[in-house]
Amino acid sequence: MHSQPVMPLSNIDSKKTPIAHKVLVVLAMMTVMGGSLIGLMTYINIGYSDTFFNDWLMSFLLAAVTVIPAGFIFMALFTYVVQRCLPNTSEKMRNIIVGLLMAITMESAMALSTAINNIGFSSNTALFNHWLDALLAALPLGLTLMIMTSLTIKPKIERFLKS
């Protein structure tokens, strides 16, 4: 009887995660986190109306093609800078700091893109006021999401994306 050779465990463990799975995970996170924050910001900007879901969707799509891709760059940059500046700090503390920086940066940018989509550039004062109102209303949710993400999901996602 002829038997097949046994594959070493190291070959089984070294299989790469398909890129499609990585993209789906990132898109799911982006949709849940960005969608909920932009929904709140849209509500703060214009309230609830018959066009709310369309207004939310347009704001989300604007952020999805501008703000959220920039967030991946900022995440990598903040992670690198915090690791370089605080090498003796625990990974947990560095992740908290990155989470705070990301929350403030992303909230500010999403509030701006949402205000631009909902208010436009007709009045700088109105645009600023709607940006600030949306930012202040969504910041507690954003901080909570980013801290939870930084402490629990970020390390797992980083390992998953490297696989």
Structural key phrases:
mainly alpha
**Care to count the β-strands?**
0
Helix vs. strand class:
mainly alpha
Query: Which whole number gives the mean pLDDT?
Result: 85
Oligomeric state of this protein: single chain
Number of structural units classed as domains: 1
CA-based gyration radius: 20 Å
User: What's the helix count?
Assistant: 6
Strand fraction band?
A: under 5%
Keywords: Membrane, Transmembrane, Transmembrane helix
Protein name: DUF2798 domain-containing protein
Organism: Shewanella saliphila
Transmembrane segments: 23-44, 56-82, 94-114, 134-153
Describe the structure.
The chain crosses the membrane at residues 23-44, 56-82, 94-114, 134-153. Keywords: Membrane, Transmembrane, Transmembrane helix. This is DUF2798 domain-containing protein. InterPro entries: DUF2798. With 163 residues, the protein is an all-alpha fold. It has one domain (19-162). The chain has 6 helices and no strands. Helix 2 runs antiparallel to helix 6, helix 4 runs antiparallel to helix 5 and helix 5 crosses helix 6 (124-162). It is globular, with a radius of gyration of 20 Å. Mean pLDDT is 85; it is low at 9-13.
